[in-house]
Design goal:
single chain, about 850 residues, alpha+beta, six-stranded antiparallel beta sheet, 21 helices
């Protein structure tokens, strides 16, 4: 190709024939006709496809603009001379496409010829592409030594060819395969399924990629392996499938890694379903058999398996022979006291186990001792046969089972959680002939670690739960002293009967004057925190009740206490016993007047069932919940005739699944209206009928049936404002006590009456009144119109007075002051003689 002549400038119109000329060149080659002057006079469609120029853009222009780099004029002249001599030329050169891209082409220039009287050359070429070839020997060596097993199957699915890798993978030599089908050679594999896939490839021509299956190699028939196989059709020159090529890759390591990962992941759903130590240990054993081992035992320190024992060893403490923790004094060879907590086997009844669940054991594999639990790593014994003699010396019974049941491989993993030693888990294989491998230690460790956390959680829960139950039992009333005023029954059920701890409470508190206080309260939440809060409030109610405060004043003081306790909470810290979110109902029943005075702090109203069976819910002022502060509480009085039933409860009893409190109150009233049932039976029946399942909240129910203190048990006299009246009052008191059969109390009662009446005459204003009540105790009350409370003094030996109240305090069971709208009452209580109780 010549480049003589001036280069055209872009956009210039070259001199050219009136129309472009197209020629047909060699098939698939880009071809052009170039005059000896270097001008293009012919252009083919293949040249247009290669370089992107249309004929109109090239014909008539010097061919030099198509070259990517200037050509040597001498070289061009030599090429032209060869072509004129009829030899032609071929070689490689760089050309530039219309889009500016540079490509390398193989160029051929023909011998010169004349066209229309002009000497011309035919120039053709095609883009040069890299080509390489592989010799047959190289290809054979590659196929033979490929890390992937390969084989060629005939249309009848018989082996035609296979490489050495496939022989090693399956363990079947070449001579036993060629000419035979897969099912004949490897009957233990999924031969039928694989041949079905190969037939589908023959029929459809669509390859099957990465089909995985499990099988055994003849070289190692006891170890299951995983394979990934792909099948490709072999196509002949006529386009028909003439056979199958399949490739096999051993993916056992990948499969085992997936199995181990799945094992650990699935453990989370099967282990730790309950907060029970022994159940969790058994779940670990059941989960690992037969997925990981054939025989599993879980042994826990005695202090872990039995939560009432001393605590387990912290790390850094050495085990002692008793199971209690003691400082490590340089190591110990003593064996820990453990108890079998979990046991599972592929053999029914676990005959491999020398010990049963609950037995004391010593299952640390020799030659290890208790230090293995404290700071040892998992123990892998791939072949127990090599160490059987150690068991024969230290644990002969265990060695006998190893021999009898063919136990051949073992992993023992210390169980530790939160820097605490808990026990040891042992995995053993016997039926599964594959020994444990080093890669099996990690999943064993993970299984035990997950179970250890669950066991530790269960252990902590068991202890905390026991502490919470003890706390709540100590906080709830152990008896309900209704005296002669009330028959009382109660029921308490926490939201979670298993936990047994909640924040609801009730109480019956004897007050002065034969009165009785009924209390029910509800602390938001459950568990030990709610129970502790309940205990604080119950104690406060007892203290305030002893002050004989009216119900509204008692709730106001309780509200102030809740506010003060809340203010004492450390800022930014949670004490664990919050006191917000509590309600309370406080009622005082007087058997003499049969009046019940009540006030409530955000609590549901009581239910009253009259002696004739009518049910009503007294309308009490609601009052705010405790802890809001600044809002008043109000009291209401209702008459409760002899035999009336009053029920105090928490909202857990009336808020069922429908959460409709009004409907729940209606159901409660209907249940309480049942006739003829003893009070305890009625209480249990009501709770059973109304309690939803599952129970959403704590439930407390307090029932009280009222009694009247009849006239023959209550006597009162007005006392004239004259000191001389004291002797007359003493005489009347003595006669009354003889009538009541209480002669043993006559002297002390006369002295008490004399002192109280004398103090009232001397320091208070009238009217003065004396009242005696015979109930479970003998009550003496002296009322006056003064609000000044008497003060107990310890008189000196030289004092002439001041000993009256001191004597009263010594002679009575208890005494105190109660304020009334008219003034105050000084009261005392004396125990009745034993024969009259």
């Amino acid at each position: 190709m010549a480049s003589a002549g001036p280069q055209p400038t872009p956009g210039a119109e070259p001199s050219q024939p009136s129309a472009p000329q197209h020629f047909s060149g060699p098939a698939n080659d880009a071809t052009a006709v170039v005059a000896s002057t270097g001008t293009v006079i012919g252009w083919t469609h293949s040249a247009q496809d290669l370089l992107g120029y249309r004929a109109a853009e090239v014909v008539g222009r010097p061919a030099g603009f198509l070259l990517a780099r200037p050509e040597d004029p001498v070289r061009v002249a030599r090429i032209a001379e060869r072509c004129r001599a009829g030899v032609g030329w071929s070689g490689a050169t760089d050309v530039r496409r219309r889009d500016g891209r540079r490509i390398e082409v193989d160029l051929r220039v023909s011998a010169s010829f004349h066209l229309d009287g002009r000497e011309c050359f035919l120039v053709s070429g095609r883009e040069r592409r890299p080509e390489w070839t592989v010799g047959q020997s190289v290809l054979d060596a590659f196929l033979a030594s490929s890390p992937i097993g390969m084989a060629v199957m005939s249309p009848q699915l018989r082996y035609v060819w296979m490489n050495e890798t496939l022989e090693r993978i399956a363990g079947v030599p070449h001579e036993q395969r060629v000419g035979r089908r897969m099912g004949e050679v490897l009957p233990g594999l999924e031969a039928d399924a694989i041949e079905t896939l190969m037939r589908r490839v023959l029929d459809t021509g669509v390859p099957v990629i990465d089909y995985e299956y499990r099988g055994w190699s003849w070289a190692d028939p006891h170890r299951e392996r995983a394979y990934s196989t792909s099948f490709f059709p072999l196509t002949g020159g006529d386009g028909f499938v003439t056979g199958i090529c399949y490739m096999v890759l051993d993916v056992t390591d990948r499969w085992k890694a997936q199995q181990r990962l799945a094992l650990v992941n699935d453990a989370g759903a099967s282990i730790g379903s309950t907060l029970d130590v022994l159940r969790t240990a058994q779940e670990l054993a059941d989960f690992a058999v037969p997925r990981f081992a054939d025989f599993v035992v879980v042994d826990l320190l005695e202090s872990v398996a039995s939560p009432e024992e001393p605590g387990p060893w912290p790390l850094g403490m050495a085990p002692s022979g008793t199971g209690a923790a003691r400082p490590d004094a340089g190591g110990t060879s003593s064996r820990p006291r453990m108890r079998r907590a979990g046991l599972s086997s592929v053999r029914e009844g676990c005959p491999e186990s020398v010990h049963r669940v609950g037995d004391l054991v010593d299952s640390v594999p020799p030659p290890h001792d208790g230090r293995l639990l404290r700071d040892g790593e998992p123990v892998l014994i791939p072949a127990l046969e090599a160490v059987r003699q150690l068991w024969a010396v230290e644990q002969p019974a265990t060695e006998a089972t190893i021999r009898e049941f063919g136990l051949h491989s073992l992993i023992a993993v210390p169980m530790r959680a939160r820097d605490t030693v808990l026990g040891l888990t042992t995995f053993v294989r016997s039926v599964n002939q594959n020994p444990f491998e080093p890669d099996d230690v990690l999943p064993a460790r993970e299984l035990v670690a997950r179970a250890a956390v669950c066991v530790d959680n269960a252990r902590r829960y068991t202890r905390e739960h026991a502490a919470a139950l003890t706390l709540q039992r100590s906080l709830l009333p152990q008896m309900l002293p209704g005296g002669m005023a009330l028959d009382v029954a109660s029921s308490y059920l926490p939201a979670d009967a298993k936990d047994g701890v909640g924040g609801d409470w009730f109480d019956v508190i004897p007050l002065s004057g034969a009165r009785v206080a009924l209390v029910v309260g509800d602390v938001v939440g459950h568990g030990i925190s709610a129970a502790a809060t309940m205990g604080r409030l119950r104690t406060a109610v007892h203290t305030l009740a002893d002050m004989d405060l009216p119900p509204d004043e008692l709730l106001a003081h309780l509200d102030d206490l809740v506010l003060r306790l809340s203010d004492e909470e450390p800022e930014g810290e949670a004490s664990g016993t919050p006191v917000l979110g509590a309600t309370c109902l406080y009622a005082v029943y007087d058997p003499v007047t049969q009046l019940c005075t009540m006030a409530r702090a955000g609590h549901p109203p009581p239910v009253v069932v009259s002696p004739d069976g009518r049910v009503n819910f007294p309308e009490l002022p609601a009052g705010p919940p405790l802890g809001l502060g600044g809002l008043p509480f109000e009291t209401a009085e209702i008459q409760l005739p002899e035999g009336s039933l009053i029920a105090l409860y928490t909202n857990g009893l009336i808020e069922g699944k429908d959460r409709d409190a009004e409907l729940g109150m209606s159901r409660l009233g209907g249940a309480l209206a049942q006739h003829g049932l003893p009070l305890d039976t009625l209480c249990a029946t009501v709770v059973e009928q109304l309690l939803p399942v599952p129970q959403p909240d704590d439930v407390a129910l307090l029932l009280a049936r009222t009694h009247e203190l009849s006239a023959d048990h209550v006597v009162s006299w007005d006392v004239p404002a004259d000191p001389a009246a004291v002797s007359g009052v003493r005489a009347r008191t003595a006669r009354l006590l003889r009538t009541w059969g209480l002669e043993e109390l006559q002297i002390t009662t006369e002295l008490i009456v004399s002192e109280l009446v004398t103090n009232a005459l001397r320091h208070a204003t009238g009217p003065i009144r004396l009242r005696l009540l015979r109930q479970s105790v003998l009550i003496c009350e002296v009322s006056d119109a003064s609000s000044t409370s008497p003060r107990l003094r310890h008189a000196r030996t030289t004092d002439e007075g001041g000993r009256g109240l001191f004597l009263v305090a010594q002679l009575t069971r208890r005494w105190g002051t109660r304020y009334t709208p008219e003034g105050k009452i000084i009261w005392t209580e004396q125990d009745l003689p034993a024969t009259d109780t």
